[in-house]
Design goal:
It is a single chain. 35% of the residues lie in helices and 20% in strands. The chain contains 20 helices and 24 strands. Strands 2, 3, 5, 6, 7, 8, 9, 10 and 11 form a nine-stranded mixed sheet that branches. Strands 12-13-16-14-15 form a five-stranded mixed sheet, sandwiched between helices. Strands 18-17-19-20-24 form a five-stranded mixed sheet, with helices on both faces.
Length: 653
């Protein structure tokens, strides 16, 4: 399908390309793996825009054997005629001028998902080579670039009967810290785009050397309803999927939801296929419609009695998975990251669209309606019980009535930006940590045993757990309705557990608590995992720590190979070398085996320690893995263990 009105005049120029290579972080966020993937998203988003406009239904991403990445679509093809303002072809304008494209009011697109409108030109600037091939008007056009500059004029190189664009680029290794794309990250993003743009076929081909040759295809006719079904696959649904699709004032609204028997909710919102992690007016409209419709139905059918208070927004979202996707011609985002939609008119449009469909669903499915409202009523009772429990635990604002937990060894600093808390497994390790810490800035909170699995518990049960309650009080942010990230007492929260299976299990339980009830702490970048050594190696007066088996072996080989005597007897096996040259190898199974000085110098000294920073790269994938590992269903967990058993590195026998 070719739009004869789509030409060079549709390409609007805002400003020239400047300083992209000098300050790449300004345009793609970073130069690490995340920034590398951002290049791909920018090119793919251009093809997705063609699909949303109705001109494209196939997109193929190919990881080439020579290190290049190719993105091919069957859209209209980037215009190649001369642009009136730049004097260059529209193709060259798009690829060399920042903020040039068909998304700035030139009539190229009604809606667009391009992240910043800088995509193609920034990818070109940050690539050693880029080749563009355009298929349109029964001709093939090509142009190549070197570090953002054209190698020559655009050339007509052949004839064809198809339309589309193919961009092949080679990321610059002098800019990026890594050139290795993570296929799982790509699959997740592309699968998401396929759900949000139903009827489009997205395929990924991997031709790279040292990789298994593979091809994946994503195609979903069901749209967001299929997306909800995918997320809920490991969960027990208690009702059918409700979905609606409507258009009002050029704003397209797609909503799908389904209730499960879990205690947590998953709500993902999108604007023009961009994930709005902080929600916005579309989320507000959906939540208002959901709460109002359920309360109206419950009142009308006498499920809620006259004396009972209405269900709250938190009550009606328990156990729910929902996708809210809107396509808006002129989206207004709050902040630079486009994580929150600000268009006020969208609230009413989503409210009206979903209210009508959900009300109809409840009336036509009374059995499902009864199950859904019954679950909401249970959530309300739990909320009231939790409020009563919380009122005895947490004071309004920061901490009320209660002093800090007795087991907490607090730091003297009251500045959260300079304070850190170590959540430590057991009293033994807690004792060493308390003695070895910097008392000015480091607090220690020992937790006894395995804390409650919060994946399978409501708030009232969580607040009844002594260990979890101690952690909540120590952090100072409250929980549930009273959660306030501004009250966080420590800007570094470090989970420090043993390196055995029990320690890893405890770490997982703690991570589950943070993900389900303190997610803003993770999103704010405040959560870390300590990295204590696994081994201490000694040879005479020499001592060195190793943080992995590989590092231990390297140290042994290095010490053994440097000895002049008995060199002929030394083998290449680290265990034999250690015995022959009297290298002592101590394996730390628990933090309590280290004395305070050792724990300080290896794991707690800010000048020497290494820690893992906990982030949420993809909320959907994180939600799924927590549900699989910590949820009530055994079969998905067994399947996961069987699939990944060969990858397990830490197994206690």
């Amino acid at each position: 399908m070719t739009d004869q009105n789509y030409s060079a005049d549709n390409i609007q120029v805002l400003e020239g390309l400047e300083a992209v290579r000098k300050r790449p972080g300004m345009y793609i966020g970073s130069t690490d793996e995340r920034g590398l993937h951002h290049l791909l998203w920018e090119i793919v988003d251009n093809s997705i825009d063609e699909a949303m406009a109705g001109y494209c239904d196939k997109i193929r991403i190919t990881f080439l054997a020579d290190g290049g990445i190719s993105v091919l679509d069957n859209g209209r093809g980037i215009p190649v005629d001369k642009h009136s303002k730049t004097g260059k072809s529209a193709l060259e304008t798009v690829l060399t001028v920042l903020h040039a494209g068909g998304k700035f009011g030139g009539g190229g697109y009604k809606v667009s998902g391009g992240l910043h409108g800088v995509g193609s030109s920034v990818v070109n600037a940050l690539s050693t080579k880029l080749k563009a091939k355009v298929f349109r008007d029964n001709k093939v056009w090509e142009q190549s670039y070197t570090i953002g500059k054209p190698d020559g004029e655009i050339q007509e190189t052949g004839t064809c009967k198809k339309t589309g664009t193919e961009i092949t680029y080679y990321p610059d290794d002098t800019i990026f810290e890594t050139l290795e794309y993570n296929l799982e990250t790509v699959y997740t993003r592309i699968r998401q785009q396929a759900y949000l743009t139903k009827g489009i076929e997205l395929s990924i081909v991997d031709e790279r050397q040292n990789h298994e040759k593979s091809k994946y295809r994503f195609y979903f006719e069901g749209g967001v309803a299929a997306y909800v079904r995918h997320i809920n696959e490991p969960k027990n649904a208690i009702a059918e999927i409700v979905s609606t699709e409507t258009v009002e004032d050029d704003v397209s609204v797609e909503v799908a939801l389904q209730y499960t028997d879990s205690y947590t909710d998953t709500i993902l919102t999108f604007t023009n296929n961009i994930h709005t992690s902080e929600g916005g007016t579309h989320l507000a409209g959906f939540r208002t419609a959901l709460t109002k419709t359920i309360n109206a139905y419950a009142r009308e059918h006498s499920i809620l009695k006259d004396k009972e208070e209405n269900l709250t927004a938190d009550d009606v979202k328990e156990g729910m998975t929902a996708i809210v996707s809107v396509k808006v011609p002129e989206p207004q985002f709050e902040g630079q990251t486009k994580s929150k939609l600000g268009n006020s008119e969208v609230r009413g449009i989503v409210n009206r669209a979903f209210s009508k469909e959900f009300s109809k669903y409840l009336e036509e499915n009374p059995k499902d309606a009864k199950l859904i409202i019954g679950k909401c009523l249970l959530a309300a009772r739990a909320r009231l019980a939790a409020r009563a429990a919380r009122d005895t635990v947490i004071r309004k604002g920061a901490l009320e009535g209660l002093t800090l937990p007795g087991k907490l060894a607090d730091c003297s600093s009251k500045d959260p930006s300079k304070s850190e808390i170590y959540i430590v497994e057991g009293d033994s390790a807690g004792g060493s940590a308390k003695q070895g810490r910097d008392r000015d800035t480091q607090a220690i909170l020992p937790l006894k045993g395995k804390i409650l699995n919060t994946e399978q518990a409501r708030l009232d049960k969580i607040l009844a757990n002594k260990e979890v309650r101690s952690l909540i009080v120590a952090l100072g942010v409250g929980i549930g309705e009273q959660f306030d990230i501004e009250k966080l007492r420590y800007h570094k929260i470090v989970v420090m557990t043993d390196a055995d299976v029990d320690g890893l299990h405890i770490r997982t339980l703690i991570m589950t608590l943070f993900y389900r009830y303190f997610k803003p702490i993770i999103e704010g970048g405040f959560l870390y995992i300590a990295n204590p050594p696994l081994f201490k190696l000694t040879k005479g007066k020499q001592a060195q720590y190793a943080y992995s088996d590989e590092e231990k072996d390297e140290i042994i080989l290095s010490w053994g190979g440097s000895l002049e005597n008995n060199i002929d007897e030394i083998t290449d096996k680290p265990e034999e070398i250690a015995k022959k040259v009297n290298i002592g190898v101590q394996r730390y199974k628990g933090l309590g085996e280290m004395n305070p000085e050792q724990l300080w110098e290896t794991t707690m000294d800010p000048e020497k320690r290494t820690m893992f920073h906990v982030t949420i790269k993809d909320a959907e994938a994180a939600d799924a893995i927590f549900n699989t590992l910590m949820g009530p269903e055994v079969p998905p967990r067994r399947k996961f263990i069987q699939a990944h058993a060969k990858d397990a590195e830490t197994i206690d026998v």
